[in-house]
Amino acid sequence: MHDEPDAVTLLEAMATTLSDSVVPALSGGVQHEARVVANLCRILARELAEAGPDRDMYAALLGHDGQLADLAAELDHVIVSGKAPPETLAVLLADVTRRAEITKPGYTFTDGT
Amino acid sequence: MAPDPAVIAAGLSELAGCPVTVTGAASLGAQRSTLFIDLARPGGVESAVAQISTGAVETRSVTAEAALITTVGRHGVPVPTVHAATDELPGVGLPAMIVSREEGRTIPRHILRALPDRAAGDELARQCGTALAALHAIAPTEAPEAFEDVSPAQFVELQTQRLELLGRPRPAIRFGLRWLADNKPAPVPSTIVHGDLRNGNIVVDDDGLVAVLDWEVAQRSDPMQDLAWLCLRTWRFGSNNRPVGGFGDLDALVGGYEAAGGTFRQHAFDWWTAARCAWWAIGLAAQALAFTTGRTDAIMLAASGRRVPELEFDLLDQIRRIAP
User: Fold this and answer.
1) What is the ipTM of this complex?
2) Domains of chain B
3) Is B171 in Cβ contact with A92 (below 8 Å)?
4) Considering the entire predicted model, what is its pTM?
Protein backbone atom coordinates (compact mmCIF):
# COMPACT_ATOMS: atom_id res chain seq x y z
CA MET A 1 0.00 0.00 0.00
CA HIS A 2 1.23 3.46 -0.89
CA ASP A 3 0.21 6.65 0.85
CA GLU A 4 -2.46 9.03 -0.39
CA PRO A 5 -3.02 10.71 -2.81
CA ASP A 6 -2.61 7.75 -5.16
CA ALA A 7 -0.29 7.89 -8.19
CA VAL A 8 -3.00 8.78 -10.72
CA THR A 9 -4.30 11.65 -8.58
CA LEU A 10 -0.79 12.97 -7.99
CA LEU A 11 0.16 12.81 -11.66
CA GLU A 12 -2.99 14.74 -12.60
CA ALA A 13 -2.19 17.34 -9.91
CA MET A 14 1.39 17.60 -11.21
CA ALA A 15 0.09 18.13 -14.75
CA THR A 16 -2.29 20.86 -13.56
CA THR A 17 0.45 22.64 -11.60
CA LEU A 18 2.78 22.56 -14.58
CA SER A 19 0.12 23.74 -17.07
CA ASP A 20 -1.53 26.42 -14.91
CA SER A 21 1.41 27.77 -12.89
CA VAL A 22 4.77 26.79 -14.36
CA VAL A 23 4.21 26.99 -18.14
CA PRO A 24 2.81 30.58 -18.09
CA ALA A 25 5.88 31.72 -16.10
CA LEU A 26 8.32 30.35 -18.68
CA SER A 27 9.16 31.11 -22.32
CA GLY A 28 10.97 29.62 -25.29
CA GLY A 29 12.50 26.15 -25.20
CA VAL A 30 12.00 25.49 -21.48
CA GLN A 31 8.34 26.47 -21.73
CA HIS A 32 7.91 23.88 -24.44
CA GLU A 33 9.72 21.30 -22.29
CA ALA A 34 7.42 22.05 -19.34
CA ARG A 35 4.39 21.59 -21.62
CA VAL A 36 5.77 18.23 -22.76
CA VAL A 37 6.36 17.14 -19.15
CA ALA A 38 2.79 18.15 -18.19
CA ASN A 39 1.51 16.07 -21.11
CA LEU A 40 3.67 13.11 -20.02
CA CYS A 41 2.12 13.31 -16.53
CA ARG A 42 -1.35 13.07 -18.09
CA ILE A 43 -0.30 10.14 -20.29
CA LEU A 44 1.11 8.27 -17.27
CA ALA A 45 -2.07 8.92 -15.27
CA ARG A 46 -4.12 7.39 -18.11
CA GLU A 47 -1.73 4.44 -18.39
CA LEU A 48 -1.96 3.70 -14.66
CA ALA A 49 -5.75 4.01 -14.72
CA GLU A 50 -6.26 1.28 -17.31
CA ALA A 51 -5.27 -2.39 -17.20
CA GLY A 52 -3.71 -3.20 -20.58
CA PRO A 53 -5.74 -5.87 -22.38
CA ASP A 54 -3.01 -6.41 -25.00
CA ARG A 55 -1.87 -9.68 -23.39
CA ASP A 56 -5.34 -11.23 -23.72
CA MET A 57 -5.64 -10.03 -27.34
CA TYR A 58 -2.27 -11.52 -28.29
CA ALA A 59 -3.08 -14.75 -26.41
CA ALA A 60 -6.39 -15.13 -28.26
CA LEU A 61 -4.66 -14.53 -31.60
CA LEU A 62 -1.89 -17.06 -30.90
CA GLY A 63 -4.20 -19.62 -29.27
CA HIS A 64 -2.36 -19.92 -25.95
CA ASP A 65 -1.57 -17.91 -22.83
CA GLY A 66 1.79 -16.51 -21.72
CA GLN A 67 3.73 -13.46 -20.55
CA LEU A 68 3.12 -10.34 -22.66
CA ALA A 69 6.78 -10.03 -23.75
CA ASP A 70 6.85 -13.69 -24.83
CA LEU A 71 3.56 -13.41 -26.70
CA ALA A 72 4.74 -10.23 -28.48
CA ALA A 73 8.01 -11.92 -29.51
CA GLU A 74 6.12 -14.97 -30.78
CA LEU A 75 3.66 -12.81 -32.75
CA ASP A 76 6.64 -10.95 -34.21
CA HIS A 77 8.12 -14.26 -35.45
CA VAL A 78 4.77 -15.45 -36.82
CA ILE A 79 4.46 -12.22 -38.86
CA VAL A 80 8.05 -12.53 -40.19
CA SER A 81 7.37 -16.11 -41.26
CA GLY A 82 4.31 -14.99 -43.24
CA LYS A 83 2.01 -17.25 -41.16
CA ALA A 84 0.05 -14.50 -39.41
CA PRO A 85 -3.66 -15.40 -39.12
CA PRO A 86 -6.07 -13.27 -41.21
CA GLU A 87 -7.39 -11.46 -38.13
CA THR A 88 -3.88 -10.20 -37.19
CA LEU A 89 -4.39 -6.74 -38.72
CA ALA A 90 -7.67 -6.24 -36.84
CA VAL A 91 -6.13 -7.34 -33.52
CA LEU A 92 -3.04 -5.16 -33.93
CA LEU A 93 -5.14 -2.20 -35.06
CA ALA A 94 -7.34 -2.56 -31.95
CA ASP A 95 -4.21 -2.69 -29.78
CA VAL A 96 -2.53 0.39 -31.29
CA THR A 97 -5.87 2.26 -31.23
CA ARG A 98 -6.11 1.62 -27.47
CA ARG A 99 -2.50 2.73 -26.90
CA ALA A 100 -2.78 5.81 -29.14
CA GLU A 101 -5.93 6.86 -27.25
CA ILE A 102 -3.89 6.75 -24.03
CA THR A 103 -1.05 8.87 -25.43
CA LYS A 104 -3.31 11.26 -27.38
CA PRO A 105 -7.06 11.00 -26.67
CA GLY A 106 -9.11 11.49 -29.81
CA TYR A 107 -6.22 10.77 -32.17
CA THR A 108 -7.77 7.70 -33.74
CA PHE A 109 -11.09 9.41 -34.55
CA THR A 110 -10.52 9.74 -38.28
CA ASP A 111 -13.90 11.20 -39.33
CA GLY A 112 -13.74 9.43 -42.67
CA THR A 113 -10.56 11.27 -43.71
CA MET B 1 24.68 19.40 -22.65
CA ALA B 2 24.70 22.49 -24.88
CA PRO B 3 28.13 24.11 -25.40
CA ASP B 4 28.94 27.52 -23.89
CA PRO B 5 27.22 30.32 -25.93
CA ALA B 6 30.50 32.28 -26.11
CA VAL B 7 32.29 29.25 -27.55
CA ILE B 8 29.49 28.83 -30.12
CA ALA B 9 29.72 32.51 -31.14
CA ALA B 10 33.49 32.23 -31.52
CA GLY B 11 33.15 29.08 -33.62
CA LEU B 12 30.48 30.67 -35.82
CA SER B 13 32.67 33.77 -36.28
CA GLU B 14 35.50 31.61 -37.53
CA LEU B 15 33.13 29.72 -39.85
CA ALA B 16 31.50 32.90 -41.21
CA GLY B 17 34.78 34.80 -41.56
CA CYS B 18 33.35 37.80 -39.73
CA PRO B 19 32.20 38.59 -36.17
CA VAL B 20 28.98 36.74 -35.23
CA THR B 21 26.55 37.73 -32.47
CA VAL B 22 23.93 35.23 -31.31
CA THR B 23 20.69 37.19 -30.93
CA GLY B 24 18.30 34.43 -29.93
CA ALA B 25 17.24 30.79 -30.18
CA ALA B 26 14.71 30.06 -32.92
CA SER B 27 14.23 26.49 -31.80
CA LEU B 28 16.08 23.92 -29.76
CA GLY B 29 14.97 20.76 -31.46
CA ALA B 30 15.79 17.18 -30.65
CA GLN B 31 18.21 16.92 -33.55
CA ARG B 32 19.49 20.46 -34.09
CA SER B 33 19.54 23.86 -32.45
CA THR B 34 18.59 26.81 -34.63
CA LEU B 35 20.00 30.19 -33.56
CA PHE B 36 19.27 33.68 -34.86
CA ILE B 37 22.57 35.44 -35.48
CA ASP B 38 23.90 38.75 -36.80
CA LEU B 39 26.85 38.72 -39.18
CA ALA B 40 29.00 41.87 -38.84
CA ARG B 41 30.04 42.20 -42.51
CA PRO B 42 32.27 45.05 -43.70
CA GLY B 43 29.23 46.55 -45.47
CA GLY B 44 26.87 46.25 -42.52
CA VAL B 45 25.07 43.84 -40.23
CA GLU B 46 23.20 40.96 -41.88
CA SER B 47 20.62 38.75 -40.12
CA ALA B 48 21.18 35.04 -40.58
CA VAL B 49 20.43 31.66 -39.03
CA ALA B 50 22.90 29.14 -37.62
CA GLN B 51 21.97 25.49 -37.34
CA ILE B 52 24.04 23.33 -35.04
CA SER B 53 23.47 19.58 -35.16
CA THR B 54 23.14 18.16 -31.67
CA GLY B 55 21.50 14.90 -32.65
CA ALA B 56 22.12 11.87 -30.50
CA VAL B 57 20.77 9.73 -33.30
CA GLU B 58 21.06 9.54 -37.08
CA THR B 59 23.15 12.47 -38.21
CA ARG B 60 24.76 12.99 -41.62
CA SER B 61 27.24 15.34 -43.26
CA VAL B 62 26.15 18.97 -43.06
CA THR B 63 28.56 20.04 -45.81
CA ALA B 64 26.88 17.60 -48.20
CA GLU B 65 23.50 18.96 -47.13
CA ALA B 66 24.74 22.53 -47.77
CA ALA B 67 25.94 21.58 -51.27
CA LEU B 68 22.55 20.05 -52.04
CA ILE B 69 20.65 23.14 -50.83
CA THR B 70 22.75 25.34 -53.13
CA THR B 71 22.15 22.99 -56.07
CA VAL B 72 18.37 22.76 -55.69
CA GLY B 73 18.17 26.54 -55.15
CA ARG B 74 19.81 27.03 -58.55
CA HIS B 75 17.02 24.92 -60.05
CA GLY B 76 14.22 27.08 -58.67
CA VAL B 77 13.36 25.30 -55.43
CA PRO B 78 12.75 27.98 -52.77
CA VAL B 79 15.51 27.53 -50.17
CA PRO B 80 17.63 29.74 -47.89
CA THR B 81 21.03 30.87 -49.21
CA VAL B 82 23.89 28.90 -47.68
CA HIS B 83 26.62 31.21 -46.32
CA ALA B 84 28.93 28.56 -44.83
CA ALA B 85 28.94 24.99 -43.54
CA THR B 86 31.28 22.70 -41.64
CA ASP B 87 31.15 19.18 -40.25
CA GLU B 88 33.12 20.36 -37.18
CA LEU B 89 32.43 23.83 -35.80
CA PRO B 90 35.75 25.19 -34.41
CA GLY B 91 35.87 24.85 -30.63
CA VAL B 92 32.54 23.02 -30.54
CA GLY B 93 33.14 19.96 -32.73
CA LEU B 94 29.53 19.68 -33.91
CA PRO B 95 28.31 20.06 -37.53
CA ALA B 96 27.03 23.56 -38.26
CA MET B 97 25.62 25.61 -41.13
CA ILE B 98 24.94 29.33 -41.56
CA VAL B 99 22.08 30.26 -43.91
CA SER B 100 20.14 33.39 -44.81
CA ARG B 101 17.23 34.30 -42.57
CA GLU B 102 13.96 33.86 -44.46
CA GLU B 103 11.18 35.99 -42.98
CA GLY B 104 7.88 34.27 -42.29
CA ARG B 105 6.12 31.79 -40.06
CA THR B 106 7.65 28.37 -39.32
CA ILE B 107 5.65 27.11 -36.32
CA PRO B 108 2.97 24.78 -37.76
CA ARG B 109 0.03 26.00 -35.67
CA HIS B 110 0.95 29.62 -36.43
CA ILE B 111 0.99 28.82 -40.15
CA LEU B 112 -2.46 27.22 -39.89
CA ARG B 113 -3.91 30.04 -37.76
CA ALA B 114 -2.67 32.79 -40.12
CA LEU B 115 -4.39 31.34 -43.21
CA PRO B 116 -7.44 33.53 -43.92
CA ASP B 117 -9.51 30.84 -45.66
CA ARG B 118 -9.50 27.41 -47.32
CA ALA B 119 -8.42 28.89 -50.64
CA ALA B 120 -5.24 30.28 -49.07
CA GLY B 121 -4.44 26.84 -47.64
CA ASP B 122 -5.01 25.22 -51.02
CA GLU B 123 -2.77 27.83 -52.66
CA LEU B 124 -0.01 26.95 -50.17
CA ALA B 125 -0.52 23.26 -51.02
CA ARG B 126 -0.25 24.10 -54.73
CA GLN B 127 2.99 25.99 -54.09
CA CYS B 128 4.37 22.97 -52.21
CA GLY B 129 3.46 20.85 -55.25
CA THR B 130 5.22 23.29 -57.57
CA ALA B 131 8.35 23.28 -55.37
CA LEU B 132 8.39 19.48 -55.24
CA ALA B 133 7.99 19.21 -59.02
CA ALA B 134 10.99 21.55 -59.45
CA LEU B 135 13.01 19.41 -57.03
CA HIS B 136 12.04 16.13 -58.66
CA ALA B 137 12.88 17.46 -62.15
CA ILE B 138 16.57 17.90 -61.22
CA ALA B 139 18.91 15.23 -62.57
CA PRO B 140 19.64 13.00 -59.55
CA THR B 141 23.32 12.94 -60.53
CA GLU B 142 23.48 16.57 -59.37
CA ALA B 143 23.08 15.49 -55.72
CA PRO B 144 26.33 15.05 -53.77
CA GLU B 145 27.74 11.51 -53.58
CA ALA B 146 26.75 11.27 -49.91
CA PHE B 147 23.08 11.01 -50.84
CA GLU B 148 22.16 7.35 -51.13
CA ASP B 149 19.65 5.92 -53.62
CA VAL B 150 16.80 4.25 -51.74
CA SER B 151 14.33 2.09 -53.70
CA PRO B 152 11.13 0.84 -52.06
CA ALA B 153 12.76 -2.59 -51.54
CA GLN B 154 15.84 -1.02 -49.95
CA PHE B 155 13.66 1.24 -47.83
CA VAL B 156 11.84 -1.76 -46.35
CA GLU B 157 15.15 -3.57 -45.82
CA LEU B 158 16.62 -0.53 -44.01
CA GLN B 159 13.57 -0.19 -41.77
CA THR B 160 13.71 -3.88 -40.93
CA GLN B 161 17.33 -3.40 -39.81
CA ARG B 162 16.37 -0.35 -37.75
CA LEU B 163 13.49 -2.29 -36.17
CA GLU B 164 15.89 -5.04 -35.04
CA LEU B 165 18.01 -2.40 -33.28
CA LEU B 166 15.09 -1.39 -31.04
CA GLY B 167 15.67 -4.50 -28.96
CA ARG B 168 12.01 -5.30 -28.27
CA PRO B 169 9.29 -6.79 -30.44
CA ARG B 170 6.88 -4.36 -32.06
CA PRO B 171 4.34 -6.56 -33.85
CA ALA B 172 2.41 -3.60 -35.31
CA ILE B 173 5.48 -2.21 -37.08
CA ARG B 174 6.58 -5.71 -38.05
CA PHE B 175 3.19 -6.32 -39.65
CA GLY B 176 3.49 -3.02 -41.50
CA LEU B 177 6.95 -3.83 -42.87
CA ARG B 178 5.77 -7.27 -43.99
CA TRP B 179 2.83 -5.67 -45.83
CA LEU B 180 5.13 -3.08 -47.40
CA ALA B 181 7.49 -5.81 -48.61
CA ASP B 182 4.59 -7.69 -50.22
CA ASN B 183 2.99 -4.65 -51.90
CA LYS B 184 5.84 -2.56 -53.31
CA PRO B 185 5.03 -0.03 -56.06
CA ALA B 186 6.45 -0.56 -59.54
CA PRO B 187 9.98 0.86 -59.62
CA VAL B 188 10.52 4.27 -61.24
CA PRO B 189 13.72 6.22 -61.85
CA SER B 190 14.85 7.87 -58.61
CA THR B 191 14.79 11.63 -58.22
CA ILE B 192 16.27 13.85 -55.54
CA VAL B 193 13.87 13.63 -52.60
CA HIS B 194 13.79 16.10 -49.70
CA GLY B 195 12.64 13.42 -47.30
CA ASP B 196 11.31 15.75 -44.59
CA LEU B 197 9.11 18.31 -46.37
CA ARG B 198 6.20 18.86 -43.99
CA ASN B 199 4.41 21.55 -42.03
CA GLY B 200 7.24 22.41 -39.64
CA ASN B 201 10.02 22.55 -42.22
CA ILE B 202 8.62 25.34 -44.38
CA VAL B 203 8.66 29.14 -44.10
CA VAL B 204 5.33 30.75 -45.00
CA ASP B 205 4.33 34.41 -45.28
CA ASP B 206 1.08 36.08 -46.35
CA ASP B 207 1.84 35.24 -50.01
CA GLY B 208 2.49 31.56 -49.26
CA LEU B 209 5.61 29.40 -49.46
CA VAL B 210 8.86 31.31 -48.87
CA ALA B 211 11.39 28.52 -48.37
CA VAL B 212 11.82 24.80 -47.78
CA LEU B 213 14.09 24.10 -44.78
CA ASP B 214 15.89 21.17 -43.20
CA TRP B 215 17.43 19.04 -45.93
CA GLU B 216 19.28 16.70 -43.59
CA VAL B 217 17.54 13.47 -44.66
CA ALA B 218 17.53 14.20 -48.42
CA GLN B 219 18.19 11.20 -50.65
CA ARG B 220 17.60 9.77 -54.11
CA SER B 221 14.33 7.86 -54.17
CA ASP B 222 10.78 7.56 -55.49
CA PRO B 223 9.40 11.13 -55.76
CA MET B 224 6.04 10.04 -54.27
CA GLN B 225 7.84 9.70 -50.95
CA ASP B 226 7.89 13.51 -50.60
CA LEU B 227 4.19 13.99 -51.36
CA ALA B 228 3.22 11.19 -48.97
CA TRP B 229 5.29 12.53 -46.05
CA LEU B 230 3.81 16.02 -46.47
CA CYS B 231 0.33 14.50 -46.04
CA LEU B 232 0.90 12.26 -43.00
CA ARG B 233 -1.78 12.62 -40.31
CA THR B 234 0.86 13.35 -37.70
CA TRP B 235 1.77 16.61 -39.54
CA ARG B 236 -1.80 17.95 -39.80
CA PHE B 237 -1.79 19.34 -36.25
CA GLY B 238 -5.40 18.45 -35.61
CA SER B 239 -6.75 19.66 -38.97
CA ASN B 240 -7.36 16.11 -40.19
CA ASN B 241 -9.77 17.12 -42.93
CA ARG B 242 -6.92 19.04 -44.66
CA PRO B 243 -4.53 16.27 -45.69
CA VAL B 244 -1.69 18.49 -46.93
CA GLY B 245 0.00 19.66 -43.72
CA GLY B 246 -3.35 20.50 -42.14
CA PHE B 247 -3.77 23.37 -44.62
CA GLY B 248 -4.67 22.03 -48.07
CA ASP B 249 -6.50 19.42 -50.11
CA LEU B 250 -4.63 16.65 -51.89
CA ASP B 251 -6.12 17.85 -55.20
CA ALA B 252 -4.38 21.22 -54.73
CA LEU B 253 -1.00 19.62 -54.00
CA VAL B 254 -1.31 17.23 -56.95
CA GLY B 255 -2.60 20.03 -59.19
CA GLY B 256 0.44 22.18 -58.44
CA TYR B 257 2.75 19.20 -58.83
CA GLU B 258 1.40 18.08 -62.21
CA ALA B 259 1.05 21.62 -63.60
CA ALA B 260 4.79 22.00 -62.95
CA GLY B 261 5.65 18.76 -64.73
CA GLY B 262 5.39 16.12 -61.99
CA THR B 263 3.53 12.81 -62.36
CA PHE B 264 1.31 11.71 -59.46
CA ARG B 265 1.09 7.92 -58.87
CA GLN B 266 -1.70 6.94 -56.47
CA HIS B 267 -0.50 3.49 -55.37
CA ALA B 268 3.06 4.68 -54.82
CA PHE B 269 1.68 7.64 -52.83
CA ASP B 270 -0.43 5.29 -50.67
CA TRP B 271 2.50 2.88 -50.21
CA TRP B 272 4.93 5.63 -49.19
CA THR B 273 2.34 6.98 -46.75
CA ALA B 274 2.43 3.64 -44.93
CA ALA B 275 6.21 3.34 -45.40
CA ARG B 276 6.91 6.73 -43.85
CA CYS B 277 4.54 5.96 -40.93
CA ALA B 278 6.71 2.88 -40.25
CA TRP B 279 9.88 4.98 -40.65
CA TRP B 280 8.69 7.61 -38.17
CA ALA B 281 7.34 5.04 -35.70
CA ILE B 282 10.79 3.43 -35.65
CA GLY B 283 12.47 6.86 -35.53
CA LEU B 284 10.45 7.89 -32.48
CA ALA B 285 11.16 4.56 -30.78
CA ALA B 286 14.88 5.03 -31.56
CA GLN B 287 14.79 8.49 -29.94
CA ALA B 288 13.28 6.94 -26.81
CA LEU B 289 15.95 4.21 -26.90
CA ALA B 290 18.67 6.90 -26.99
CA PHE B 291 17.21 8.12 -23.70
CA THR B 292 16.75 4.74 -22.03
CA THR B 293 20.30 3.70 -22.98
CA GLY B 294 21.77 6.93 -21.60
CA ARG B 295 22.96 8.48 -24.89
CA THR B 296 20.88 11.59 -24.18
CA ASP B 297 19.17 13.14 -21.18
CA ALA B 298 16.74 15.18 -23.32
CA ILE B 299 13.17 14.90 -22.04
CA MET B 300 11.92 15.61 -25.58
CA LEU B 301 13.52 12.38 -26.80
CA ALA B 302 12.14 10.44 -23.82
CA ALA B 303 8.66 11.78 -24.66
CA SER B 304 9.02 10.51 -28.24
CA GLY B 305 8.51 6.98 -26.90
CA ARG B 306 4.91 7.85 -26.08
CA ARG B 307 4.25 9.08 -29.64
CA VAL B 308 5.05 5.69 -31.20
CA PRO B 309 1.45 4.39 -30.84
CA GLU B 310 0.12 7.29 -32.94
CA LEU B 311 2.36 6.30 -35.83
CA GLU B 312 1.65 2.60 -35.35
CA PHE B 313 -2.03 3.47 -35.59
CA ASP B 314 -1.47 5.59 -38.71
CA LEU B 315 0.52 2.75 -40.29
CA LEU B 316 -2.08 0.03 -39.70
CA ASP B 317 -5.01 2.37 -40.44
CA GLN B 318 -3.42 3.22 -43.80
CA ILE B 319 -2.91 -0.47 -44.60
CA ARG B 320 -6.54 -1.19 -43.65
CA ARG B 321 -7.68 1.52 -46.08
CA ILE B 322 -5.62 0.43 -49.08
CA ALA B 323 -5.12 -3.31 -48.56
CA PRO B 324 -6.40 -5.27 -51.56
Assistant:
1) 0.87
2) 5-100 (3.30.200.20), 104-145+202-217+227-264 (no CATH), 152-186+265-324 (no CATH)
3) yes
4) 0.90
